[in-house]
Amino acid sequence: MTIEFEQLNLHAGLLQAVSEQSFTTPTAIQAEVIPMLLDGQDIIGQAQTGTGKTAAFALPMIQKLDPEQQTPQGLILTPTRELALQVAAALQSFSKYSEARILAVYGGQAYAPQINQLRRGVDIVVGTPGRLIDLLKREVLTLSGIRTLVLDEADEMLSMGFLEDIETILAATPETRQTALFSATFPNEIRRLAEKYMHDPQHIRIQREQVTVDAITQKYYLVNSSEKIGALTRLFEMEEISSALIFVRTRVETADLANELSLRGYPAEALSGDLSQEARERTLNRFRQNQIKVVVATDVAARGLDIDNISHVFNYHLPEDPEIYVHRIGRTGRAGKTGTAISLVSPGERRRLGQVESFMRRKIPQAAVPSEEDIRANREEQLMKKVAMWLKRGRCLRERELVMQMVAEGYDALDVAAAALKIARAEEKQRPIHPVQEIVRTPAPRTERGKRTDAIRSNSRMAVSEISHEPGMARLRIGLGRVQGLKPGEVVGIIASHANIPGSVIGKIQIQDNRSFVDVPAELVQQVINSTRNIHIRSMRMDMQVA
Question: Is 493 exposed, middle or buried (0-12, 13-18, 19+ CB in 10 A)?
């Protein structure tokens, strides 16, 4: 029996907000978790990203707010600032018909706006552990009134070295609080955390959806992040696209990519949380009616999108969760039709690609980026097909008269035809072929015992210069080491949180006495350096630079 949102005892304003976001029926985790949280129970939700867990904890948290309380009542911890922003945006959309005050706090943003808003009053705070600790130390954030606390993607936070920060935050909240912990996995660290800080939690497990993608042709192209747009436009030239959905990470990137594609001669529109409900529906209707062929969206914005004739799905960025990859590509190949799923994979995303392949239990073939010669040849082939089509139709009578007129004026008929084709090709100038350097995926070299040479432990005595970089990675040097108490988990946590990149893409970490080394994707070097430039650990500057 299908459960409706109206059966979950949610207030009318929340139901209306849910309806306007194209939510139809609750997901499995929403149907189980919402009533329990409304009833005051502690929850352990074991579920992957993409199962609807944000709404599962956000809706009860909003409903249980006390309008009379002036201090924060809800607290949500996330591992990255991107997730903090996504969760905060979801809360804002759900609280459309309430007066809930939402604030996202994270590193890399100035303190003053966050502090000012906290002083004006906030009901729910969403933040990364590091920034929350900083605000607690500055005594501008009080957690004594927290009624509900959520740990989102707890396993990721622990893998990033945030355990100590999480425990500090939990200790600053009332013991009477309600706690909800969500994690894709349930390792011993999560188990111990739950036993220590939760009250008789109910354990909810949501099974993964069955992977059914047999009707979809999958392939990927290995290119540098800076050249993804060039590779994408080349593929637009070669693929027979009737309609395409392109997935990116953030709302800002939807607009940026859509604008860039349009400037390069490939009209596209963005679908993001910044759009009003009316504007969103207008864009979707135009997409359904094939008035626009290309839409750039985030996973959140594409929720509820039900279109059967999408020919191509592009992963401009691979998702962090393999299951989301399946959700994405499942938007093509519907209603008995075939579809194509194409992923643009940077060197720093190869680990995610491997996770997707493991999850799906199949290899995704790598394809070669079309060359300039391929594109020029295809353009000419398509032009000749159009000319041949009009010749077969025999409906060019007026055009024949014009040609005969020019021949009578002394022009050669062949020259006239060539000039006409030149004019027909003028629009190609609006679609320049940008350079793309393809990267060949090669396995890391192995030792005689079959172990990869890049699997050297961080505590190895081998000199740094003797340790080879993993392909696509660059080594950064940190001016702190073992003497200063630096730990690998701190390095991962700081880089992931402040540079807004997943901890899974960070490579080897080597802690020495007074310096340390960390490998990061080559295309993210400047982003990492800039975002951590003013970071201090125990009053000591990290001083991160290229090794």
Answer: buried
What distance in Å separates the CA atoms of residue 365 and residue 51, rounded to the nearest whole number? 28
The pLDDT mean for the chain works out to: 83
Amino acid identity for residue 447 in this structure: T
Report the candidate in 510, 511, 506, 514 with the shortest Cα–Cα distance to residue 532: 506
Tell the residue number behind the tokens 């911890």, with chain if given. Answer: 77
**pLDDT value for 277:** 62
Report the interhelical angle of 251-263 vs 228-238 (nearest 10°). 60
Q: Residues 401-404: contacts with CB within 8 Å, 24+ apart?
A: none
pLDDT, one tens digit per residue, over 19-33 is 887 676 888 889 999
Looking at the predicted structure, is the pLDDT value of residue 314 above 80?
A: yes
Distance CA 395, CA 458 (A): 73
Higher pLDDT, 485 or 201: 201
d(CA 501, CA 527): 10
* Residue ranges of domains in the chain, CATH in brackets: 5-205 (3.40.50.300), 216-369 (3.40.50.300), 373-430 (no CATH), 464-546 (3.30.70.330)
Cα distance between residue 216 and residue 313, in whole Å: 10
pLDDT exceeds cutoff 70 at 143: yes
CA dihedral 186, 168, 77, 539 (to 10 degrees): -120
Cα angle 88, 47, 354 (rounded to 5 degrees) comes to 100
Judge contact between 513 and 481, C-beta under 8 A: yes
pLDDT at 3: 78
Within 8 A by CB and 6+ apart from 187, the residues are: 155, 158
User: What count of other Cβ atoms lies within 10 Å of the Cβ of residue 537?
Assistant: 16
Q: What pLDDT does 304 receive? A: 53
Q: Helices 413-424 and 372-393: crossing angle, nearest 10°?
A: 120
Lowest mean pLDDT among 126-135, 178-187, 260-269, 275-284: 275-284
User: Following DSSP, what letter does each residue of 504-528 receive, concatenated?
Assistant: GG---EEE-SS-EEEEEEGGGHHHH
* Structural contact between residues 332 and 323, judged by C-beta atoms closer than 8 angstroms: no
Residue burial 232-271, b: 16+ Cβ < 10 Å; e: rest:
bbbbbbeeebebbbbbbbbbebbbebbeebeebebebbbb
Average pLDDT over residues 370-397: 88
Instruction: Give residue 537's pLDDT.
Output: 75
